[in-house]
Amino acid sequence: MKFEITEDAKQMIEKKLADGDKLFLDYENGDSVFTTKGYSCGMDYMFKMILLGKDSTDYDTSAYNIPLETSLGTVWISKSGEKYLENNIKLTFDPAYYSLKLSGDSGLIAGDVPVERH
Description:
10% of the residues lie in helices and 39% in strands. It contains 2 helices and 9 strands; from the N terminus they run E-H-E-E-E-E-H-E-E-E-E.
């Protein structure tokens, strides 16, 4: 799988990034260790970029065992999230909404990908 992060998306994420952070592309399915809700229901897929501090021990990230190399470094995904992605995915910045969009070869996957620090 190829994961491209455009330069403007990279710059937006870097503003929130701290030294040593581990990066995750998390699929919000209500079962994620990073979930903020107890459920996920909707017609579109909910993905989040998670920035996890290097000293954090609050989360068991062992399910995120698929590494994707990007211009920001390694981004980790889980098997449950991988099934909703395509072989070529791209994270872009939308300046009109100051938000990130995730797309694949077939089009838009997630129209608003928040960046969360945990």
